[in-house]
Amino acid sequence: MECKVSWMGQDGMAFVAQTGSGHMVAMDGAPEGGGNNQAPRPMEMVLVGTGGCTAYDVVMILKKSRQEVTDCSVTLKAERASEDPKVFTKVHFHFKVTGRNLSPSTVERAINLSHDKYCSASIMLAKTAELTHDFEIVEI
């Protein structure tokens, strides 16, 4: 896996990344750090990627478990260290899983499998952060 990140110029702190799969992603800094607030911060992208990684796993596991899942979202709330390097110290994941006749134990199992075995991003974050999660099921 590889990507290229390029600075967009001297009038700010914006960067554009081209992923190995050919997609472009913009990032920018906060105004107090010389940025123009035109795109997500790089550390926000870490959370975005982690949320995408774990949500992907949960949906895949639920489908393989023959659960009738119709929607899944995860909200991540993170705290960072106050001193450099400002690593994540706590991340809470709140999953909202929608479907028909969803088994709470199967949803919990899918989330645990993602966090403990499959989601590379959350497993890496767990090296510096306390990870917690909860979930809700919306029956349709």
TrEMBL record:
This is Peroxiredoxin. Pfam families: OsmC. The lineage of its organism: Bacteria, Pseudomonadati, Pseudomonadota, Betaproteobacteria, Burkholderiales. InterPro entries: KH_dom-like_a/b (IPR015946), OsmC/Ohr_fam (IPR003718), OsmC/Ohrsf (IPR036102). Signal peptide: none annotated. It comes from Pandoraea terrae.
